[in-house]
Amino acid sequence: MAGSPLDERLRIFRPLPDASKLASQLFLESFGAAFPVPREGSLPIPTPPSAWRQYVATYRWPAGAEETVGFCNWIRYRDVYLQGGMCVRRTFYRHMPREHFRELQQRGGLAQMMMAAAERELNDCVAWFGFCGDPKALAVDLRAGYVKTSLPYIIVKWFNPPPEAERQRLIEDVAKVGPF
After folding, report:
1. What Å distances lie between residue 176 and 74, 78, 169, 180, CA to CA?
2. Which residue, of 126, 143, 145, 164, has the fewest CB within 10 Å?
3. How far apart are the C-alpha atoms of 123 and 141, rounded to whole Å?
4. Would you say residue 1 lies in a domain?
5. Which of 96, 99, 116, 119 shows the shortest CA–CA distance to 108?
6. Domain at 43, CATH number
7. In terms of residue numbers, what domain contains 127?
8. What is the mean pLDDT of the chain?
C-alpha cells in the first residue's frame, strides 16, 4: 500500500545513532522506566552500542505536528536479535483520522508494521527472539511470524532455522539472558 494516505503521514525508520531524542518520553509513559540507551552492560551478555538497532514510528497529524507514536529495540546477540521495548502511544488510534485507522487495522496495526519494516533490514540472522508475557502483545507477535517455544515468555521468529537440536540450544541460551 505504498503511497497510500497513511503512508504520507506515517514514517517508520531507524534513527542514528539511537532513538533516545525521539522516543524517551513514549518509553517512559509506556513502561514507567528509563529509555534503553545503547550501552554495554545493559544485559548479562555483551551489548556494545554497535549491536543495537532501534526503530521509531512518527505520525504527522492533519494540523502538521509530528509525534513519535511507536518504538521498538533489537539487540544483536551472536546470530540472533533480541527484540524488546515495543510500545505504541496509547492515544494514537483514538485520535487519528478514521481512514488512517482503518488502513492501520488492515495492515495489522502499528506494532506489526514496525516489525515488518525492521524485518526488511534485520533479516541477516538465524532468528529474532522476544520475551513476552502480555497477551495482546503476544497476539501481535504471533501475527508477525513469531512462535511460542517450550519455555515461558520466550518466543522466536525463525529466519534461517538450524536443525532442531541447535534450535533448542539457541532457545535455552537466549532464556539465560533473562527479560530483555
Report:
1. 17, 14, 11, 11
2. 164
3. 16
4. no
5. 116
6. 3.40.630.30
7. 10-175
8. 95
pLDDT at 9: 96
CB 12 within 8 A of CB 113: yes
SS3 29: helix
Joined grid coordinates for residue 61: 497529524
Average pLDDT over residues 114-120: 97
DSSP 8-state symbol, 51: G
Residue 106: exposure state from Cβ atoms within 10 A (0-12, 13-18, ≥19): exposed
User: Residues 40, 105: contact at Cβ < 8 Å?
Assistant: no
C-alpha grid cell, residue 76: 544483536
Q: What pLDDT, in 10s, does the model give residues 68-108?
A: 999 999 999 999 999 999 999 999 999 999 999 999 999 99
- 89 and 53 in contact (C-beta within 8 Å)? no
Residue 33 lies in a domain: yes
- Quick: pLDDT tens for 10-58: 999 999 999 999 999 999 999 999 999 999 999 999 999 999 999 999 9
Instruction: Specify burial of residue 57 (Cβ count, 10 A radius: 0-12, 13-18, 19+).
Output: buried
